[in-house]
Design a protein that fits this description.
Length: 274
């Protein structure tokens, strides 16, 4: 993939993490162009990574083989319409990491058929531990899919979806998911401090426990339910805690919360695409 020139439209945190991941994996900095309406943001990128910068989005797109749209969903329509004429002749690969922007909307704003891949990353990409779901339109070739996958794998793992509507479920699960775990970890740490541990000790024990559990789940072939069972001794401390969760129907509460996130994702797609 190292021959393609990639234009990043938008220089926020996710763009910064992707650029850093690409370069850490051997991508040539001079094959990356950044554009942002904030000159200071562009300068930060060039100073930190040694990449190229363009004064305008159109200039960046004209020099690129791949265009990665990393702007806020609310300005996506304006950005796409602005660059559409400059890329129409070559119909370059377009990758969107904007939440809630459907392929149908992107195609409508472009005004022509082009290879477009929609991606839902998550914030752990900032530390190269992200999880991204991808979905490509019918115009996208296998080679273009591999290019997009390589870009996202520079900051974590990837999966391909069979249907774009699955993006709303992915948003509710992995897109918003880090916040759920932070909330649960926060509650655990707060409870531990009430039980007599100091703040720093409670935080460290919480984080390391979460990290260890995640690594065990990742490395094991067992189902999650079996992993839970493995650490739940009959009449033990873990079973006592889990009994409270089950009595309070924590699983149903989690399902309700995720469904609320999923429904909001659907609503945002309709609002932003209108």
């Amino acid at each position: 993939m190292n021959k393609e020139t990639i234009a990043f439209i938008g220089c926020g945190n996710m763009a910064r993490s992707l650029i850093g991941g690409l370069i850490a994996n051997g991508y040539e900095p001079t094959n990356i162009i950044a554009s942002d309406n904030n000159p200071e943001q562009r300068q930060v990128m060039t100073d930190q990574f040694g990449i190229l910068a363009a004064d305008t989005n159109m200039a960046a797109c004209q020099q690129a083989d791949v265009i990665l749209l990393a702007v806020k969903p609310q300005v996506m329509q304006t950005v796409i319409i602005d660059i559409s004429n400059s890329i129409k002749a070559e119909k370059k690969l377009i990758i969107s990491i904007a939440a809630g922007i459907r392929l149908e909307s992107i195609a409508s704003w472009l005004g022509f058929d082009s290879a477009v891949i929609r991606v839902m990353p998550n914030t752990p990409a900032l530390i190269q531990s992200g999880m991204a779901a991808l979905f490509a339109n019918s115009t996208t070739t296998k080679v273009q899919q591999e290019i997009a996958e390589s870009i996202m794998k520079s900051v974590g793992n990837t999966i391909w979806l069979d249907d774009e509507t699955q993006m709303d479920s992915v948003t509710a699960l992995s897109g918003s998911g880090p916040a759920y775990f932070f909330y649960f970890m926060e509650a655990m740490a707060n409870a531990a401090t009430e039980f007599g541990l100091d703040d720093s000790m409670a935080k460290l024990l919480t984080i390391e426990t979460a990290l260890g559990a995640a690594q065990m789940a990742l490395q094991s072939n067992d189902e999650l339910s079996q992993l839970r069972s493995n650490v739940t001794s009959p009449n033990g401390t873990t079973e006592s805690a889990l009994n409270v969760f089950q009595k309070q129907k924590l699983d149903q509460l989690i399902k309700q919360a995720m469904n609320a996130a999923r429904q909001r994702s659907i609503e945002l797609s309709e609002e932003l695409g209108s």
